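Supplementary Note 2. Why include the ligand at all?

Several targets in our set were suspected to adopt different conformations when bound, so apo predictions alone were not considered sufficient. For every target with a known small-molecule partner we therefore ran a joint prediction. The input for pantoate is given below.
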Amino acid sequence: MQVWRRRHDPLGTSIGLVPTMGALHAGHRSLIQRARRTCQTVVVSLFVNPLQFGPAEDYGRYPRAQSQDLACCREENVDLVFIPNLNTLYPQDFQTTVAVSTLAQRWEGEQRPEHFQGVTTVVTKLLNLVRPARAFFGQKDYQQFCVIRQLVKDLDVDTRVILCPTIRESDGFALSSRNDYVTKSQRQRALSLYQALSAGKAAIAGGLRRADLVEKNMAKVLDARHGLAVDYLACCDARTLEPLSRLRGTVVLLGAIRIGGVRFIDNLIVRIRR
Ligand code: PAF
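The joint prediction is reproduced in token form.
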């Protein structure tokens, strides 16, 4: 990868990187298309990163679909698909990790203690290898975006981190490579997360500014469904991800639920003008 970049674009000034774990869907396509529109050269990485999965999580069964992924990249005119080998990326004597503190410790960080450290370590490696001018991430994993933006700022990485909108099915269900894990009825119940967040957004649009009341509104939509556990449902500052009591500025509504052992996360950003 480094040799290619040195030859192709020594400064990396026109490279856009879309880091993925493969199993590409319309959400990834939209990231690639955004990169295509703004960068001369588009690099997509496909790597299921073991460091970001907890011991009881789905690393083993995470969907792998390399030939479909390559076909998708070809259709989207990707210039280079980077598929690092596990032992090349993490050789036997690998011993360095990159960790962001406060931002990575709350919400998903509380539920998945090792997760963000795995993400920030692999993303640092990918940014070092590709040295892109821009890197593209989906809003679906909003906390991941915030953590990576912080990492890039703190470590003076010369890459712009670009947030791209969540791609949803027609009823609002957010696309994810893990969606194939669920049955139709689980998917229907999981849709209530988006509906709860939308209820929160509507309440804010209607003038509600107390976070506890907005959260109550959202929880009511979820409570109506059985067999669903709520990990968190909160109104937060969109930059720091701190929970808010009074809503103003740019707010992110964050939610995570579990249904039959599968976790779903989603979020909506709300801009409050007055
Ligand atoms: O969002 C993902 O697919 C992964 O967390 C990423 C950023 C590719 C790192 O493995």
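The chain has a mean pLDDT of 96. The longest helix spans residues 184-205. Comparable summaries for the other entries are listed in the accompanying table.
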